[in-house]
Write a structure and sequence with these properties.
- The protein is mainly α.
- Helix 2 packs antiparallel against helix 3.
- The longest helix is centred in the last third of the chain and has 15 residues.
């Protein structure tokens, strides 16, 4: 049930404040650094290269990112999906298994299992 809040008749209506005039509820957080480190740079470079259809260079950047942060599943997931397209099934299977070992979500586990099954055919 919705709760209806009624304005008291003895109080005048307030004019709506502009966003700039409203007080901030919490202080602004410190600005993030421009660079997120070598891992983030390698990941951004990999995504950019793949989008430009420079597959081999993009794969190298994903490999570099996976070495810089071995606990991250993102590079392994990307390599698992991209490597079969360039004929590197054995390496793809290795990355799929690493991705599967790190994955926590049920949907991600199913996706990794599907890729592993596809590569094992």
């Amino acid at each position: 049930p919705r709760r209806v809040v009624r304005r008291r008749p003895d109080r005048p209506r307030r004019a709506p404040e502009s966003r700039a005039e409203r007080p901030r509820r919490r202080p602004a957080s410190a600005p993030k650094p421009a660079s997120g480190g070598a891992y983030a740079d390698a990941l951004a470079e990999a995504k950019q290269l793949i989008s430009e259809r420079k597959t081999e260079a993009g794969l190298d950047a994903y490999r570099r990112a996976s070495k810089l942060k071995p606990s991250a599943k993102g590079p392994h997931q990307a390599l698992c999906r991209l490597l079969p397209g360039v004929g590197k099934q054995a390496e793809a299977l290795s990355h799929c298994q690493r991705w599967r070992a790190m994955e926590r979500s049920p949907g991600g586990i199913r996706a990794a299992d599907r890729m592993i099954a596809r590569l094992n055919r």
